[in-house]
Amino acid sequence: LLIVGASGDLLHVPALAHRAASSAVDAATGAFGRLGRCDDDQISEFFARFASSLRDDEAIERILAANGRDVDLAANAGRSTTRLVLTEQMRQDMIVGLEVWRDSPLRRDAPLERIEHGVWSLEARQAPLGVVGFVFEGRPNVVADAAGVVRTGNTVAMRIGSDALGTAEAIVGHALAPALQAAGLPPGTVALVRSPSRAAGWALFDDVRLALAVARGSGPAVAQLGAVARQAGTPVSVHGTGGAWLVVGESARPERLHAAVVNSLDRKVCNTLNVCCLPRSRPDLVGAFLAAVDEAAARRGTVARLHVDRDSQAAIPEQRFTTIVSVTRADGVHEEPAASIIGREGLAVEWEWEQSPELSLVVVDDVAEAIELCNRYSPRFVASLISEDGDEHDRFYAAVDAPFVGDGFTRWVDGQYALATPELGLSNWQSGRLLARGGVLSGSGVHTVRYRATIRDPDLHR
């Protein structure tokens, strides 16, 4: 039994789930010491072999077969399969990410800074951190994402959402494990927690041997995982709630607003547009916004679902509130009004849609009011301003409390897309700003720092 002090939750971890987590950490802990005796070229070879296996027709056929079974089981259970399907694009993205690490100049032992003191010197050097524990949502590509920390000499113990466990086991068996063996790396370098139980994630994050705990996804379950790890004394990187905010200034051009909205609603992930703030003085922008939302939905062969702030109802055509549409969710098709009214607190809700784009709208007096609402109700994650006023952009950047700030579509917030490096996780500022790092966690950031002194005067003393 685990008692989470932050919430008072009492968590039951069955013995099988605990053993599965402990076994993975055992393997990763044992591999960490042995990995230190391997050279960096072997690590590069591992990434090359892993990528090559994902290109191999025979290997990918077996992996896709496992993924198909996972997708069928999830769909029959009424759960979302949007991010579960191993598409060709996802496979190519995994390969690209692995080859980025193959070709990366990063090394486990690298000088960071040197300070000369005359008769002695001090050098700061990057060094491996240890065992990194991951709890991922049910997405096939996360297996390749987690492997990125091996580049800087770390090992991995990861638990993947039960819907994708079969796919993960197939990737490990037909691509990852053979790559480790071929490169001569220890087999426990990347260890999978082989349990479908959510409790295995609690057990993993309660293990004091972890040097870092990373949880992807959002909502209460992720917050609970973070609390378990913090209670164990482990540093934590968690996402928190997702959903991007788009603020529109009085000087905004309708065509720029249209493009930003359409391109921020192509699929539902954490950086998808969730709340839009429109200026009361520009009713024409309401029309541009609604047209863009409808176009985004039409591109997906469906209709949009709008949640309108109670005080903004008059800005929206009445027909939106009376028209009934078919909204596709994970558990099937629902007949709902195209638009409905929400209270101001509803702006804090992240809409988890499946096929039909779903978001909130609020009409404001000015950008300053929108910033106030964003800082109060948003997850402090992604904020974008559409405006032709440069000074307004500067004021927006200075005042909005978010780690990712832009001036167009919101979907740019992604490690591989924006920073050309595979991401391990994104972090918002929901629980406060991050110490000395950005909101994108990548393998290059998972390290510690050691200090090495060279004393040239044997009589040096204090």
Summarize the structure in words.
By secondary structure, the protein is of the alpha/beta class. The protein folds into 2 domains: 2-240 and 438-453, Aldehyde Dehydrogenase, Chain A, domain 1 (3-Layer(aba) Sandwich), CATH 3.40.605.10; 244-416, Aldehyde Dehydrogenase, Chain A, domain 2. 38% of the residues lie in helices and 23% in strands. It has 14 helices and 21 strands. A 7-stranded parallel beta sheet has the order 15-12-16-11-10-17-18, with helices on both faces. A 5-stranded parallel beta sheet has the order 7-6-5-8-9, sandwiched between helices. A 3-stranded antiparallel beta sheet has the order 3-4-21, with no helix packed on it. Helix 6 links the parallel strand 6 and strand 7 (190-192). Helix 1 (15-35) crosses helix 7 and helix 3 (57-76) runs antiparallel to helix 6 (165-183). It starts with a strand and ends in a 7-residue tail after the last strand.
Q: Which tags fit this structure?
A:
single chain; about 450 residues; alpha/beta; Aldehyde Dehydrogenase, Chain A, domain 1; Aldehyde Dehydrogenase, Chain A, domain 2; seven-stranded parallel sheet; five-stranded parallel sheet; about 25% strand; globular
Write the layout of secondary structure elements.
Blueprint: E1 2-3, E2 10-11, H1 15-35, H2 40-55, H3 57-76, H4 88-103, E3 110-116, E4 120-127, E5 131-136, H5 142-147, E6 155-160, H6 165-183, E7 190-192, H7 198-205, E8 212-215, H8 220-231, E9 236-238, E10 244-248, H9 254-263, E11 273-279, H10 283-299, E12 305-309, H11 319-322, E13 324-329, E14 332-337, E15 339-342, E16 358-364, H12 367-377, E17 382-386, H13 390-399, E18 404-406, H14 415-419, E19 423-426, E20 440-442, E21 448-455
Parallel strand pairs: 5-6, 5-8, 6-7, 8-9, 10-11, 10-17, 11-16, 12-15, 12-16, 17-18
Antiparallel strand pairs: 1-2, 3-4, 4-21, 13-14, 19-20
Helix pairs in contact: 1-7, 2-4, 2-6, 3-6, 9-10
